[in-house]
UniProtKB/TrEMBL annotation:
Domain of life (superkingdom): Eukaryota
Protein name as catalogued: Gamma-secretase-activating protein isoform X1
Gene behind this protein: LOC103658772
Cellular component terms (Gene Ontology): trans-Golgi network
Lineage, highest ranks first: Eukaryota, Metazoa, Chordata, Craniata, Vertebrata
Domain annotation Gamma-secretase-activating protein C-terminal: ranges: 642-749
One Pfam family recorded for the sequence: GSAP-16
PANTHER family xrefs: GAMMA-SECRETASE-ACTIVATING PROTEIN (PTHR13630)
Amino acid sequence: MALRLVSDFDLLKDVLPWLRSQRAASAAAGARGGGPGVLENNYESLRILNVERNGNIIYTYKDDKGNVFFGLYDCRTRQNEHLYTFEKDLHVVSCSVNSERTLLAASLVHFTKEGRKNELQPGSKCLTLLIEIHPVNNVKVLKAVDSYIWVQFLYPHVESRPLPENHLLLISEEKYIEKFHIRVIQEDGNRVVLKDSGHLPRERVVEDFVWAQWDMSEQRLYYIDLKKSRSVLKCIQFSADEKFNLMFEAPLDITLSDSGFKLVNFGCDDLQDQENLSKHLTLCVFTNHTGTLCVCYSPKFDSWEKITYSVFYFHKGHSKTFTAALGSVDSHVTKGLTFLNLEYYVAVYLPGHFFHLLNIQHPDLICHSLFLTGNNEVVDMLPHGPLQSLSGSLVLDWCSGKLYRAVLNQSYLLQFLWNTQLDCEKMAVLHYVLSCGRDPRFLEAKIIQWISESISACHSFDLIQEFIIASSYWSIYPETSNMDKLLPYSSVLAWNTEIPGITLVTEEIALPFMKVHSFKGYWEKLNSNLEYVKYSKPRLLYNNSMVQREWHSLISEEKTGRRRSMVYVRNILDNAMKVISNLEARNLEPRLTPLFQEEDNHQRLLMGLMVSELKDHLLRHLQGVEKKKIEQMVLDYISKLLDLICQILETSWRKHHLHPRVLHFSRRASAAEFTVFHIMTRILEATTSLFLPLPPGFHTLHTILGVHCLPLHNLLHYIDNGVLLLTETAVTRLMKDLDNSEKNEKLKFSIIVRLPPLIGQKICRLWDHPMSSNIISRNHVKRLLVNYKKQPQSSMIDKSPGSVEFLPLNYFIEILTDIESSNQALYAFEGHDNVDAKFVEEAALKHTTMLLGL
């Protein structure tokens, strides 16, 4: 299963044994009735009432006499505590306890035997009580009305000291919300009582709303009111300083009835008729610490053949409306649609039909979200009962009395990655594992193993490219906010392939209007996201286009012998050295692959230029972040890129048991070398299109394997098309390792004529062969004659002893000798002091002899 629900709390396991032990203790003490353990025949009444911000769980149960008991389970100590007993047979609507556990608020109703739980009988009263429970003392009636009331204590973010004032929200079925200010004092030591209980100040927070949701973790109230039949989403933030602020208003393009009323996360709502759950709309708001704001909405079902649901990505400025096919007409939907908040993702779940894992951090492309239909076992992985999504990936199944924590099932997803045939599913799972998985190094190793065996399995995108970009992104993402706007998340910019079983429509939406002007924490990040959507056209994502132009310019200057300031080039190479040092410091294990063993100035230039350009990019757009931190982030990011390439190579190298002896040319290639060569070629393709640097030594290793594995005509084709780059290290090794057989002579000559002039001159001196002498002589003559101006010569040619009677050659050699003697200082250079006119004459004669077959 892709998603596992790990039990954090279970009424039957964490509470029921304690209640039975309390009953046994009461019986042993001779207690008669009324004890908290008397529910042996009435355990079905045990149910969860609320989950508070600190994770404590409030529950209730009835004894044989119908007395109502309130208990609390402390999630930290794993201990139960009896809070209060109400000695009347009433039904509990809602309950909440303050953070100090000194006050209990409860809302209760009385039902007649014929009454239904969702209907108050004529004359019935909903009692809202405030009870002193430290110790149990006075009971204050806050309200006695003919409509339902829900209660919720506010929990301040500062819990280090008891607060003199508590704040309680009362939510009325008559569509208003009040806030009570409750002051307490201590008497007789630790006894906590209400101060001035006869008059508790109150204020209206909200009026005329049709839907509301409570965020227990962040102490936020989301609600919708109707203005001229238009739905407007609003949010109130409650603070520890007793204040509350309306943070934003956002128009919602959904249909809500003014006569309707819906609450989300105000305790466990067992007043809802679960048999008709699928006929009601579903609406919930999800946020996370990165500043996302999503509204998930599913209207009433109007068809058994398909279901429609929408997600409003306010932090991105658009909505997506999905339509999922449910299969045959006979596939009756008996359960409602469930939305679950999973931090960077939202899960949309319809039991027995489909499971949709929506990427809310990067929702632009549908391929980054995972859609699984009823043909897959994963759609039955969650309980079929109604689930309530709480903060921090908590999921409450209040029917069974269990609180779960939703976690990624790494092993299942990795296996799914190996088995799935659809490119869209490979893409979605790859990103999910990298973004949400634990132990990134382990997961990267598993993904690399999969890539090595499935390198040609994807047709819609480059597997290596996507892995390198996504993994590098997530390695640096937690460092600072706004990184999702500045670094590429995926190598895929558009996706036009249909996803089986689902269609979608994307629309622009109006952005929330922020009602305050000073932001902190989440609100600062949300406002930054909204500002980006408003003003950032085009997008600010980094790319290497500037690096590419500058790199080509530097290489061109090198070829023509012109070079700009040595200080500039030295700074670039210093940047590259920092990247390599950073990489080596993070990876202490010895590498089997022979990389980083040569200078490879071209790759170092590319590396250094990328450091410089990426640093400038982040400095421009990351306001308020220290320059030193940005510089380290840049080094970490580029080091990660290179490390992933090294990991892919290292995995292939070890898997196929390659040895450094493959670097020698005097041996035949094995099937393993063919496989590694193919993987290296795919790595080169992936990095070339994005213009990413490669580890120094990559091209040397790639060329050596190419010489081993390819026939000569294919090898030359790869070289001529830039797939194989002839490095000085690789060609030097080739000249030294291979003898001068006819086949090897042809190979060496084909290689030498394709070398850049500067490297070619060095390499020719390593090959003791007439062909090499001929090339050296041609280059020497070319250099001498490039600026030659004909001077008057005497008609008589001096003959040195042993000279050949061939006047054209004699005349030519004399000219070269004159140039050499007159420009000796100018033409002397390292490595060429043994090349002179005499050397040219001998090479010319040898070449003529070979051509004449003498």
